[in-house]
Amino acid sequence: MVDSKVPSEDLLSHKWDRVISNFVVKTGLGLSAGIVASALLFKKRSWPIAITTGWGFGVAYADAQRIFHPHHVPGVQFEKKKPVV
Amino acid sequence: MLASALTRAGTRAVSRPAARASRHYATEVAKPKKGSLGKKIVWTTALVGTAYAGATYEALNNEAFHDTYTTYVPGGEQLLDAIDDAMHDKQVKENIEKAVAIKQKAQEYSVTLKNYAGKAKDTTMDLYELATDTVNQLTGNDQDDSQTTSAGGPAPTSRKTKRLGGRRGGIFANVIETDEAAVIPQFATIGESTIDELAKTVQDLVKMLNDAGLKGHAKRMADYGAYEIERLQTEYRNAQTEQNQVLKDTVALAQTAEDVEKHIQDHTSEIDTKVSAARQRSRDRVIEKENKLKSEFSVEALEMQKEMNAIATKELNGQRNAFMNELSAELKERATEIQRQFVREVRQQVETERGGRLSRVDEVSVRQRVFEKLSYANAESLDDARKAHQLTIAVDALGRAAYAGNQKAFLDELQALLTISAPGSPFADLTERRNDELVQVIASNISETVARHGVDSMAQLVTRFVNVSTEVRRASLIPEEGSSMVSHVISIIMSKLMFKKEGLVPGDDLEARLARAEYYLHKENDLESAAREVNQLKGWPKHLAADWLDAARRHLEIKQALEVMRTQAMLGSMQQL
């Protein structure tokens, strides 16, 4: 996720955009997967839905962490970039 | 219980065949181990020893193998060194030489032995053949003569020689007795006294025999005697004739010898005369030749003399020519010198004239030169003035373009400025050149990217700052270390609860700085101070404000450059006044 040609004051807002969209998508996916699984495999129990939604939320959270702080990922290296107008 | 017993039996039955299978049979062949191991060791040692010795020998003789040997074989190098020392040791060398000598001697002896053996064989073969031949002869076998000649046996055919004495016993053998008195043979007398005597003796004998009454004997005697004496006489006569012949021959020979001698003498005298004649002739020829040579020499001498004369005359001519040339050259030199003097004198005259009458022309030319200089200076100053004006205009244009706002590119104006301020004229004096250089340096320091994209105007920056400040406020509470998304969320929420400061507030925290920057921008239009304030932020807020700061910096840069250039241009144009 390269922030190229983004004015620096909008950095955080761009990140927030990505994070929020990530959250929505992943949680939604988890929810739908849970509903399907519970309907087909788990005899209409409620706990698969909760699990999968939680999982989606967790993945989104991890991604958000990475988006906000790329240096937290082990093995990440930063290069000096020429200043772009 | 029965069931358990049965099961136990069953398990036992199962385990027994396994035990049976592991029994050893005595009829199996036991492999003898000890003997074969010893043999193997012996053979291996022998082969390795041979290989080692062979490798050492090869290493001694073959250069390429030597290196491989020393590298791979353990103890090889030491062994080779030991062998080399032994080879160079004197004692060992002597021993080796002795051994070689002995070998050679043995060879020679063997050769001689072979020869002797051959010879012995030949002789035995010969002896054997000899023995076989004698045996064959003795036993009377028919052999060819060619086969026996080689034997050379002791059996030459003995011939019966006719000997007079052989008949002696048989003269009076089988004498026929007669009564008739034997006729006394008459013999012709020959010169030889002995034969005559013999004849006489025979006659006497016959007579005696006749007288004695042995007629038969007498007859026999007479016959025999006559026969013999006749024989003798004929022989004697033959001998005599032969002798005469021989004498005649010798006489003839003597005669021929005399003839030959005479002939030889004649021949020698002839030769003598011829030789003397030849000598005389040769002497004459020699004298003739001498005379001829003398005449030739005299002729040659004459010729050489003529040549000498010719050469001498040539040399003289040559020298004369050389002298003549020298003289003419000198003359020429003299002539040119005189000419030069003449020219010099003429020139002097002309100059004196010039000094007088032509000096005024000089004055005029001097004045003309002064005019020239003045006009050049005038042209230069005009040029400079023009340039200064151009520079001022260009700087103004640049300023207008840069601050037109909306990031308009001012590259063209910049290029124009660069070309104008290029140090071109070599007639510019020092200050001018310095001014131009200054402008050039500043113009070239404005990076091309900046020129291409233009700068933000002041108003744009101010509006942008409003945006930046809101964002910065939102991110103000994010800690620098150990931050996560949650801290971002907390910061956003908490910042909404914070108070906003305004005006020139003293303090080092983020809020104070932002307030001050805002004050500078809105109230005092001081971008520089505002930028300085913003530069002092830290962490995420700084990160967010980085772009704005960059734009502000660029703006300030261009502004500074433009100001300097404008002052420079104005200074330049004022200097022309």
Automatic annotation (TrEMBL), chain A:
It holds the Pfam family DUF543. It is found in: Mitochondrion inner membrane. It comes from the Eukaryota. GO terms for cellular component: MICOS complex. InterPro entries: Mic10 (IPR007512). Its main location: mitochondrion. Keywords: Membrane, Mitochondrion, Mitochondrion inner membrane, Transmembrane, Transmembrane helix. It is a single-pass membrane protein. The chain crosses the membrane at residues 20-42. Belongs to the MICOS complex subunit Mic10 family. Component of the mitochondrial contact site and cristae organizing system (MICOS) complex. Component of the MICOS complex, a large protein complex of the mitochondrial inner membrane that plays crucial roles in the maintenance of crista junctions, inner membrane architecture, and formation of contact sites to the outer membrane. This is MICOS complex subunit MIC10. The lineage of its organism: Eukaryota, Fungi, Fungi incertae sedis, Mucoromycota, Mucoromycotina.
Automatic annotation (TrEMBL), chain B:
GO terms for biological process: cristae formation. Keywords: Membrane, Mitochondrion, Mitochondrion inner membrane, Transmembrane, Transmembrane helix. It is a single-pass membrane protein. Its main location: mitochondrion. Component of the mitochondrial contact site and cristae organizing system (MICOS) complex. Belongs to the MICOS complex subunit Mic60 family. PANTHER family: MICOS COMPLEX SUBUNIT MIC60, MITOFILIN. This is MICOS complex subunit MIC60.
